[in-house]
Design a protein that fits this description.
Number of strands: 5
Shape: extended
Order of helices and strands: HHHEHEEHEEH
Structural class: alpha+beta
Number of helices: 6
């Protein structure tokens, strides 16, 4: 017998022994063989699914439409800034007064007796401003008002950016014209540092509030915080933005 034939016989004998060992291992540990078969089947199914479907399915992206800027903001950039620079001779654009923020406060003194009234006020103020209000607590105790320190008595919202300009647009063009016998806002509500505070008697002037769900009239204070250094500059800025000031204070 040649050496080549001997090598072939040795190879066949090794394969037979390996097959017997594997068969013996399956007999000794059938659970392990079943687990191995399950893993192989899972891998094959996963590969088949990827091949049939191609790439993995991606999540549908939300349609990103063009963001429309607030009208008052566009007006401020395109009209108000050039006009104020001509009237007041400001050296550059950054020196022109601008709105920094608007703070809306709604006091609910009855919340000391019924806390649910404050929840209603927070809901109404959130609808008006489009932002979740923050609850304010008393800083000290006042026995005459049955008020203890730390009791929730008010709600406040601070508006900035586009939301601030959108609120200004709705306030000047929609809410204030709905005030009964409206002749303009007073001109003596400046604080001497370029900030203006407007008092509103009820919340029904805003169309966001449902008349049928209002249980009580609640007033609010709207404070316009500007970068103006004087009240004159602040008044001029608010006039250009559309604030309907009263022409004659005596009437």
């Amino acid at each position: 017998m040649s050496e080549k034939d001997k090598d072939q016989q040795k190879a066949k004998g090794g394969e037979a022994k390996g097959g017997d060992k594997a068969h013996g291992a399956d007999k000794r540990d059938p659970a392990g063989a079943e687990k191995a078969a399950a893993r192989a089947a899972a891998k094959a199914g996963k590969k088949g699914g990827e091949d049939e479907g191609g790439e993995k399915p991606k999540k549908a992206a939300k349609p990103a439409g063009p963001k429309v800027p607030a009208r008052i903001k566009e007006r401020y950039v395109k009209e108000v800034v050039p006009n104020l620079m001509k009237e007041r001779n400001y050296p550059n654009v950054m020196a022109v007064p601008r709105l920094r923020k608007i703070v809306v406060n709604m006091g609910v003194g009855e919340a000391t007796q019924n806390i649910k009234l404050l929840d209603t006020a927070i809901d109404e103020l959130g609808r008006i401003t489009g932002q979740r209000p923050a609850m304010r607590r008393s800083r000290k105790s006042i026995a005459a008002f049955r008020l203890r320190q730390g009791m929730p008595i008010a709600a406040t919202v601070t508006l900035r950016g586009d939301r601030m300009y959108e609120f200004v647009d709705r306030l000047f063009n929609v809410a204030l014209p709905r005030v009964r016998d409206f002749r303009g806002v007073p001109t003596n509500s400046f604080d001497g540092r370029g900030n203006y505070t407007l008092g509103l008697k009820d919340q029904l002037i805003f169309p966001e509030v449902d008349y049928a769900k209002v249980d009580k009239m609640r007033g609010m204070n709207v404070t316009f915080v500007t970068s103006a250094r004087t009240d004159e500059e602040s008044k001029l800025l608010l006039q250009h933005l559309g604030m309907p000031f009263r022409h004659q204070e005596g009437r």
